[in-house]
Amino acid sequence: MTSDEISAEILAQFAQTPYACTSLTKLSGGTANFVYRGSLLHPLPDGTDTVVFKHGKDYLASKREFTLSTERCIIEENALQSLNHFSESTNTNTDGAGETRHITVRTPHLLASHLDTFTLVLECLPNATDLKSLLVGAPDALSRPHAVAIGRGLGTWLSAFHAWSAAPAQTALATQLEKNHLMRDLKFSVNYDGLVGMVDSRPGLLGENRAVFEQVRDMAAAEVGKTEGAGVGPIHGDFWSGNILLSNPNPTTTTTTLLVTDWELAHVGPHALDLGQMLAELYQLKFYKNIDAGEWIARAFIEAYPGLSEDVAFRALIHVGVHFIYFGSVVPGWGDEGQV
Predict the structure, then answer these.
(1) Using alpha carbons only, how large is the chain's radius of gyration in Å?
(2) CA geometry: angle at 117 spanning 7 and 265, to 5°?
(3) Structure pTM?
(4) Distance (Å, rounded) from C-alpha 236 to C-alpha 159?
(5) Could you tell me if 138 and 89 are in contact, meaning their C-beta atoms sit under 8 angstroms apart?
(6) Which segments constitute the Aminoglycoside phosphotransferase domain (predicted)?
(7) 61-110 pLDDT, tens digit each
(8) Half-sphere exposure (CA, 13 Å, Cβ side) for 304?
(9) What is the count of structural domains for the chain?
């Protein structure tokens, strides 16, 4: 099916619901799914006039020859249903000049779902952009105080999510996420099999590290399937700057809302994977693009994650290295050959 045919299918499916739309606009991004912004035929009672439709097929939207189970859509729906009841994290930060910034971090509200067609209806954050695109496109978009406030907000939220989702009251959510073996195993393979595979692609540079890389892979493989223990529990699974949407990314704004999106990879695993992936992506902004805000956010992010044990911190640093070696080398547009 073409994107236009999928759009027409969604319009027809929701025509007799409060989410009937006059038109759909395909949004950029969306590696796995087809994502559209819909203009509602009639505003919702709270005045909302736009929503987001996220539609999954059994293949990647960006690479249709790559098959991927639509079970991922059910996992995300389950996660967002539960997260509708997870309190947002609000931080107030005052810098040395006396300027106060209010940062709210939460997940997008799930408005409706049709799992028979693997379609979710989500709130639309007006004038939003993702954190990575914002900083790559406008490296000076965030002042240092604003970047630090965002980092603190993300660290506080992630710590609260890890604690909340591991509590007995969220056993049902943890049980559902533990079933997400497909995406858990895919994440492991991409990162850790990919790490060892880099030796073959760059033997002159990495050949002598094969044994170490294999030990790291084996260590991570031994973690797969663990459901309890210190530093283990439900995780986002794809926690990086590209999955953080910002409202009002304006240097003069004092109030910023951040939405943590894309929950299809959520599963039970080491908390360090969420920490390490975000740290790696933020620091790559500094390493490859010399964007200071990446480092400012990264430092504030980890400082705001309370009670970080040495074991979890060390495991997170290992994942930072894995992410740098693999994704830093294969993602187009990151660095030049010398940097890689």
Answers:
(1) 20
(2) 100
(3) 0.94
(4) 12
(5) no
(6) 106-281
(7) 888 889 999 999 999 999 999 999 998 888 777 776 667 888 999 999 99
(8) 24
(9) 1
